Amino acid sequence: MGKVVTFGEVIMRLSPPGYNKMKQSHSLEFFFGGTEMNVAASLAQFGLNVQHISNVSDDFVGQAALACMQGYGIDISHIKKVNHPLGLYFMEVGSGLRASQITYNRLHGAFANIKPEQVDWETILDGCTLLHWTGISPAISEGAYQTLKQGLELALSKGITITADPAYRSNLWQYGRNGHEVLAELCRLSTVFIGGVNEVNEILGTQFTQDEEGFKAAAQKLIQDMPNIAKVYDKVRTGLSATHQKIFAQAWDGKTYFKTSEIEITDVVDRIGTGDAYAAGLVYGLETGMAVAETIAFANAACALKHTIAGDVNLTSVAEISEVAQGNVSGRLKR
Amino acid sequence: MGKVVTFGEVIMRLSPPGYNKMKQSHSLEFFFGGTEMNVAASLAQFGLNVQHISNVSDDFVGQAALACMQGYGIDISHIKKVNHPLGLYFMEVGSGLRASQITYNRLHGAFANIKPEQVDWETILDGCTLLHWTGISPAISEGAYQTLKQGLELALSKGITITADPAYRSNLWQYGRNGHEVLAELCRLSTVFIGGVNEVNEILGTQFTQDEEGFKAAAQKLIQDMPNIAKVYDKVRTGLSATHQKIFAQAWDGKTYFKTSEIEITDVVDRIGTGDAYAAGLVYGLETGMAVAETIAFANAACALKHTIAGDVNLTSVAEISEVAQGNVSGRLKR
Amino acid sequence: MGKVVTFGEVIMRLSPPGYNKMKQSHSLEFFFGGTEMNVAASLAQFGLNVQHISNVSDDFVGQAALACMQGYGIDISHIKKVNHPLGLYFMEVGSGLRASQITYNRLHGAFANIKPEQVDWETILDGCTLLHWTGISPAISEGAYQTLKQGLELALSKGITITADPAYRSNLWQYGRNGHEVLAELCRLSTVFIGGVNEVNEILGTQFTQDEEGFKAAAQKLIQDMPNIAKVYDKVRTGLSATHQKIFAQAWDGKTYFKTSEIEITDVVDRIGTGDAYAAGLVYGLETGMAVAETIAFANAACALKHTIAGDVNLTSVAEISEVAQGNVSGRLKR
Amino acid sequence: MGKVVTFGEVIMRLSPPGYNKMKQSHSLEFFFGGTEMNVAASLAQFGLNVQHISNVSDDFVGQAALACMQGYGIDISHIKKVNHPLGLYFMEVGSGLRASQITYNRLHGAFANIKPEQVDWETILDGCTLLHWTGISPAISEGAYQTLKQGLELALSKGITITADPAYRSNLWQYGRNGHEVLAELCRLSTVFIGGVNEVNEILGTQFTQDEEGFKAAAQKLIQDMPNIAKVYDKVRTGLSATHQKIFAQAWDGKTYFKTSEIEITDVVDRIGTGDAYAAGLVYGLETGMAVAETIAFANAACALKHTIAGDVNLTSVAEISEVAQGNVSGRLKR
Amino acid sequence: MGKVVTFGEVIMRLSPPGYNKMKQSHSLEFFFGGTEMNVAASLAQFGLNVQHISNVSDDFVGQAALACMQGYGIDISHIKKVNHPLGLYFMEVGSGLRASQITYNRLHGAFANIKPEQVDWETILDGCTLLHWTGISPAISEGAYQTLKQGLELALSKGITITADPAYRSNLWQYGRNGHEVLAELCRLSTVFIGGVNEVNEILGTQFTQDEEGFKAAAQKLIQDMPNIAKVYDKVRTGLSATHQKIFAQAWDGKTYFKTSEIEITDVVDRIGTGDAYAAGLVYGLETGMAVAETIAFANAACALKHTIAGDVNLTSVAEISEVAQGNVSGRLKR
Amino acid sequence: MGKVVTFGEVIMRLSPPGYNKMKQSHSLEFFFGGTEMNVAASLAQFGLNVQHISNVSDDFVGQAALACMQGYGIDISHIKKVNHPLGLYFMEVGSGLRASQITYNRLHGAFANIKPEQVDWETILDGCTLLHWTGISPAISEGAYQTLKQGLELALSKGITITADPAYRSNLWQYGRNGHEVLAELCRLSTVFIGGVNEVNEILGTQFTQDEEGFKAAAQKLIQDMPNIAKVYDKVRTGLSATHQKIFAQAWDGKTYFKTSEIEITDVVDRIGTGDAYAAGLVYGLETGMAVAETIAFANAACALKHTIAGDVNLTSVAEISEVAQGNVSGRLKR
C-alpha cells in the first residue's frame, strides 16, 4: 500500500469541561488536532500508512503532541522540533442555540515559523500516493505557504494524487498575502477538489447559488479553469442548533452528479473535525479504489459519526462507518 | 449610569455531577445563586452598575460567596457577615421525563436572620435608579420581610423604579405570615410587575385563565388595583421535558399587548435561574431605555440562552443575547 | 411481606467517562450490576424484602460489590466469597447514531465457578414468595445452569412464583449446552414469562411475527406448551438512536391482551438495565397485587425512568414511577 | 455475638478537593460521618453486629445517608426520617503548617430535633451488650441530651457496658446547659471512660498535668468520683504538622498502667475520625475479650491507620490493624 | 487607607493534574497569576486597596482573567483589552527529587504588546502610596520596559514608596536590552529593594558571598550605589526537594541586620508564587507600619503558608499568617 | 543502533483515585503496563529502537493497549490480537503505614493463552541486539513459558545479549510447573542477571545473607553455576513506609564489586514499575556501552525518579536521569 502524506499545523485545543464558560472553570480538557493532522489520524485508524509533516515546539508540550500522533499510528519521523511554542486555541463549547466560540494563539507558533528548507519533500514524497492539504496552512504564514507550494509542485510533477480542501478563513491571512489568490494558485497544483459552492466562489470570485444546480455549475467552471482537477467532492451541512445537524455529500466527477441521502445528527458530542472526518473518508475511498457514490456515502457517514466522538479526531473504524454508510443509524448496543 | 440595587438571599446550590442521585455520588458541584443575586450578576455581565444587599455567613463559605459576587462585578460593600450558616439547597438534576428535585436548608441561615436595622437603605438607595425584589425574600422570615418593606417604602418615596417578581412558593412562608397578603402589600409598593396570570391569581385571589385574553385581563385588573404599577411583563413556559422547553414573553404597558415569538430549547444544560435571566433582561431594557417590544425580545432571548449555561447565573453577553433576540438560533461556531 | 429471591452474576461495568473511547481515556467509571441483581436492587428501593444469591471474588473488589448491594438494602447473607475474580465488562458508550459497545470478561469469574452444592436453596427459599431468574445465568457455565435448575425445581415444588426473563444471548453459551433447549427446560419450571415474540421464537423455534397479533399467538402457544406459565409480560422498544428510544408494554394473562401507551425517551442517560427495571416493575406489581394493566403501566414507566439514571440499577422510587405511569412526563422541577 | 448500639448525629462533611480553599473551588467531596456513627461503621467493618440510633432528614440527602450506613453494614432500622435538614459541616483541608478549618451547620438539623419519645430504647437495648456515646451528642440540643440520658439510664440498669467518649467542645453547648456538668452527669451513667487528662480536667474541674503521672492520678480520681467507671482508656497525640502526627495509647484498669509504643504517621490522608477509629478499636477489644494491653495496641493501630483513609470512617480490616499493632509499619505492597 | 498599585503581566498557568506529565494527561488545571498580580491579589486578601495595571486579551480568556482578579478584590479599571492572546505557561509539577518544568508562551502576548501611551500613570498614581514592580516585566518587551519606567519616574517624583523585586531571569530578555543594565536603571528609581546577594550580584556585577556577611556587605553596597533605596529585604531558601523546603528572611535597614527563624515546609502543595507571597507580606508590613523585624517575620510566614495553597496566589489571611509568624506551625485543626 | 526486544504480558492496572478503597470509589484510573512492556516503554523514551512481543485482546481494550504502546514509540507489529480478555489487576494504593494491595485477573487472559507457534522469533530476533525477559512471564502459563524458552534458545544461539530479571512470585505459578526450576532453566539461557541475594537463593536454593558479602558470594556462585551469565546487577530497597523508600544499586562484573550511593525518596507518587525502571536503566547502559559504575548509577537514578511518575512506566528522560545520577536531587524548578 502506498503512503498518504499530510502537511499542516499540529494545534492544541483547550476547552472548559462540559458547556462551561472559561470564567466559571478551573480546568481545561485538551486535545491535539489540526485539520490535516486530523485527516492523517483518521486514516491511520482506517489502517492506512500515513505520514504527517509539521513543526512542533521543542518542549514537553511538543513531546506530548508527538506522543499523541504516534499513538494514532502516524509516522512522525519528519516532524521537526523548533524553539517556538505550539499553536493552540481555546474553545467554549456551546449547546442548543448558544454557539461555540474559539480564540486562537497560533500566529507566532512552531508551525507559523516553518521554512521550506526544513522540509525534505524529495524524501517524503518517495513512495507517496496521495498528498493532502487545506486552506488553513497557507493562511498562517509566508513560510507555511512557501513550504506547501514546494511540496505541491514536486508532488504534481511525480503524478501523486493531491487532495485540496481549500476552505477560506477570513480571520487568518494576516501576513500580507491575498488568500483568494493563494488558494487559487495552490488549487491549480492539485488534482481533487474538496469543497462546494462557497469554496469555488471564494477562489474564483464567482457567484454560484447554494443548490444542486449551483454546485454542478461551480464544479464545471472549476474544472474548466483548473485542468489538473478531475473531481469535486462536497458536503452540505444544515445546522439546526449547536447540537443538532444534518449533512449530505455530493460530487461531480466531470460527467455525473452524485448525492447521498441526508443524515440527521442529534446530541452532538463534538462538532470539531467533522469536515476533516469527511476528507479522511474521501481519501480512504480514493486510496482503496471505491466508486464515487460509495466514496461519498462513506465520507458522509464518517463525518456524521465524528459528531459523536470527543476531540478533533475521528476515532471510529471502517466497520462502524460502513454500517452507517449502509443506512444503519439506530445506535443499537453491540455486545 | 445609575445603580441597580437587588436585595435577597445568597444561597449555595449543591448538585451531584451529571444526572446522578445523591446516593450514587461522592462529590457535589456547587454554585452561589439566589434569585435576586442572579439578576444582579447578569446585569453586571451586561456592564451595569449593580449592588446586592444581603447577609452571608461569617466563615470561609461566606467569604467564597463574596468572592464569587465580586468576580461577577457586583458591589458587595453593603453585605454583612453574620454568625449564622449560609443558606443552601441540594438539587438532583433530572433529565427527560425525570424531574429535578430540590431540598432546602435556608430557614435558619444568614439571610433568614437579617434585621431591618442592619441595612442602611438611605445610603444604599442614594444614586439608585432601580430596585429589584422577588417573592422569595419576604417568604423566608419576618426579618427579611420587614427589611425589604423598609427598602421599598424608601425607594418608592424617592421615585426609584421598583421591579417586583412576586412568585409565590407555597413550601416557604413557614414563619407565620400569609404569603398572598404580604406579596400584595409589597407589590403595591412597586412600579413594574414581573409575572402573569398565575402570579396575579395568587396575589389578588382572582381566577383569570392561562391564555392571551386572561393575561390582558389580569394585567388590567392588577394595574387597576395597584396604581403604582405601570407595566406588566410576563414569560410563558411550556415544559416538554426536563431537557426540552419552549418560552415566549408577553407584556402589557397599560395600553398595548406585546408578544415575542416562541423559542424552543433542546438539550437544556441548566434550568435554574432562567426566570432570573428573564428578569435581568427586563431590567436591562428598562435601564437602557429600550422599547417594550425590544425589551421582551431581549428578556426572552436572555432566558432562552440561560438554559445553556451551567449554574444559577446567566453569563452570556449583551451581544450574544441580541443575536438570539434577532432570531439567530442556529448555534453556529464562532471562530 | 414475603421475600423476593434473585439469582445471578454480580458483574462490574467499566466505562470511559462521557462518550469517550477507551483509547482516549485514562479513567473508567464503574458500577456493580448484573441483570438479576439489578432487579433485586430496584425492588429494595421500592421497599421490598430482597435477597440475592451469587458468588463474588474473595478480594477487595468483591468486598466493594457486597458493600454496594448492602447499600441498596439487599440481603447478601447467602453470597459466597470465592477465589476467582469478579466478572466484569467494559463498555464504550455511544451517542446518537453511534452504538455503544461491550466486551466481557466473565467466563472464568466468581459466578461462572458457582456449584449447586454451594447454594443452600432449602434455607434460602424459606419464606420466599417470588424467585426471579434470567437467561443470562444458565448461559455462563454448567455450574450456574445446574445451580439455577435446582433452585427452580425446589421453588416450583413449594408453589413460589417464578419469574423467567429468558433472553437468549448468542455470544454467551460457550460451555457446550444448547441455549434454546436449556431456556425451554428452565421456562417449563417457571410461572411467569417475561418476554415477547423474539423470546418465544428463540425458545420454541417458532416464527411468530413482530406485531400485536404475533404476540398474542406466541403467548398462547407458550402457555399451551408450558403449563406452569400463567402470564406473559412483554415490552416493545423502538430504538431511534442510542439516545432516543420509545417503549410500550403489553401482556397476555391467558385471556386478555393489555397494552400501555408508548413513552418516548430523549436524552438517554444510561441504556443499561432498562429491561431489568421493567422486570422489577413487574415483580413489584405481582408482589403488591396490582392488576395486570396497572402492573404493565408501572413496569413500563419504571423502564422509561431507568433511561435517566446512570448505572445499571433503577434508583427511582415508587412515587416517581407512579407519577410517570399516570402520564406525567413533563419533568417539571420539584422544589 | 451481642449487639453494639451507638447514638449520635449523622452529619455530612463537605470539602473542596485536595488542599483547596472554598473560594478557589467549584466542587466539594462529601462523606457521611458523625463521631458515633464512625464508631459503628468501623465496628461493622470488623464484623460486629452494630445498630445506630439517630434522626436523618426526610429527603434525598437523608436517603443517601441511610444508604451509606447500610453499605457499611450498620442496622438502620431505628433511624427516623424527620422534616429537618441533615446536619453538615464544611472543611477546608490544611497541609503542613496550615491548619484545617471547619464550619458547622448542625444546630437546627434533623438530629438536633430528636426527642426522647422518638427513640424506643427498650426495644433497641434488647440484646445489646455495649452502648457507645460521646460528648458531642448532648452538646447539640436539649432533646439530644435527654434522649441520650434516657438510653444510658436504661442501659445501666440492664448491666450493659457503656463506653463514654466525653470530649468537651466549647463551640457547641449553645442551648443553655453547662457542658461540664452534663458530661459529668452522663459519665456517672457509664462504665468505661475514653479520655485522658484533658477530659478529666474538663469534667471534674481538676488540674492534672499532661504526663504519665498526671494521667494515672486523673484516672484514679475519676474512678473514685464515678464508681460505675471501671477503666480509663486514653490516647496521646503529638501534632507536628497537619500531615505529620505521632500517637500512643495508655490505660488504667483500676490497678495497672498500660502504655503502647508510639506510632509516627507521615503523609496524613485524612485526620478526621481518627479518635473514633481509636474508640472503635477499644470497643472491639472489649467485645472480643482482648486483654487491656492488646486492646490499646489494637486501638492505637486502628487510630494510626485511619490517618491513611479518606473520609470519616476507618475502612481498614481487623487483619490490617493487627499487623500494625504487631509493629509492621513498613507499608510493603501486598500482591 | 492609600492605594497600592502593581504593574505586570497577567499570565495563565496550565498544569496536568497531580504530578502527571503532559503526555499522560487529557486535562489541565489553570490559574491566573503573574508575579505582580500575585502580590496584588494577596494584598487584596489582606484587605488593602489594590489596583493592578496590565493588558489582557480581548476574548473570553481575557474576560476570565479579569473576572478572576475582580474576585480577588483587585481594582481592574485600568486594565486594557487588546487584540493579542493572553500570555501563558505550561508546568509539569515535580515531586521529591524530580523538578517541576515550565515552558512559556508569552513573548507575543497581550502584555508584551503594552505601550507607554496606553497607561495613564497620572490618574493611576493619584492616591497611590506604594508602587510594586519586578524584574519580569521589563524583561518581556521594550514596550513593557518603557511603560514601567514611565510609571517609576512619575511615582518617584511623587514620593511614592516603590518596591523593586528585580529578579533576573536569563531566559527572558530576548528583545535586545541588557537585563542587568535595565534592572540597575529601574532599581535606581525605587525605594525598597527586595532581594539578596544573588540579585545584587546580578545587578551590580559584584561577587558577594551567600552568607550573612555577604548579605550585609551587598546591602550596604547597594544603598551606597542607589541612594533612593533605603532598605533591603531578602529571603533565603534551602530546597531539599521539590516538596521539602526551608526558608528564612533577613533585612538591612541601613543600620541594623534583622533575621527571622527558619521555617521548614514539608508536603509542599504549590511552589509557585511563594516569592510573591513574601513580597506581599513585606508590602503589607510597609503599608501598615510594622517594624522591620515584625515585617520580615510576617513576610516569611506568608511565604511559608503559600507553599500550602494551590495556584499562584496566597489566599491565606492576615490572621493565619500572624499565627505562623508567632511560631505556631502545628497545623492543628480549627473547628 | 540495534533493536531491543521485550517479551511479556501487557496488563491493565485499575486503581481508585488517590488513596481510596474500592468500596468508597465510583471510578478507577487505569494504566497499561506489564513488567517487560514497562522496560520497553522506558527504553523508547530514551530513544532506543524497541519491539515488544505479546498478545492482546481483540476488542477495544486491546486496541487501547496497542495505541498506548504505539504512543510510547514501541514497535507493536508482532503483537497478536486474540479472542481472550486482556489481563488486568486492581490496586488500592496505600499511604504511609498502610500497604498497597493488588488483586489479579490474568490467568485466563490474552497473554496466558499465547502459544509458541504464534511468535515468529526468527523474524523478530533479526537485527536484535538485546532480549529482555522477567520471571513473571513463565509463571503465567505453560504457553508463555514455552514461547519464552524458544525465544531465549534462538537468541542465545545468535549471540544476542539476554537480560534476565527472574523475580519469583509465589502467588503465580498455578499451572503446574515448579517455578524455581523453570527460572533456573531460563537463567541458564541468559547472559545478564538482574537480581540479588533473594533471587539467587530462590533459584539455586541457596542461603546467602542479605549484605554486601552475601551478594558477592551469591553472584560468584551464580556465575559458576550458569556459565552464560557474565554480570550480576542488583538494587537494594529499604521501605520505610509506602511513601518513603531508600534504594541503592550494586553489581558484580565477575571480578569487581560496584555500589552506588543510596537515594532517599519521600512523597512517593507511584511505587509500581520502579524495578522495571531500574532494568531499563541497566539495558540502556548496556546498549550504549556505559561502564558498570556509570550503568548502575544511571539505573538507580532511573529507579528513584520512577517513584515520582504516576503509572507503570518511567516517563523521564535520559537528561533528567543523568542529572540525578550525578547527585542533583534538589528538585529545583526548571523554567
Automatic annotation (TrEMBL), chains A, B, C, D, E, F:
<dbReference type="InterPro" id="IPR011611">
    <property type="entry name" value="PfkB_dom"/>
</dbReference>
<feature type="domain" description="Carbohydrate kinase PfkB">
    <location>
        <begin position="1"/>
        <end position="307"/>
    </location>
</feature>
<dbReference type="InterPro" id="IPR052700">
    <property type="entry name" value="Carb_kinase_PfkB-like"/>
</dbReference>
<keyword id="KW-0808">Transferase</keyword>
<comment type="similarity">
    <text>Belongs to the carbohydrate kinase PfkB family.</text>
</comment>
<dbReference type="Pfam" id="PF00294">
    <property type="entry name" value="PfkB"/>
</dbReference>
<dbReference type="GO" id="GO:0016301">
    <property type="term" value="F:kinase activity"/>
</dbReference>
<dbReference type="InterPro" id="IPR029056">
    <property type="entry name" value="Ribokinase-like"/>
</dbReference>
<protein>
    <submittedName>
        <fullName>2-dehydro-3-deoxygluconokinase</fullName>
    </submittedName>
</protein>
<keyword id="KW-0418">Kinase</keyword>
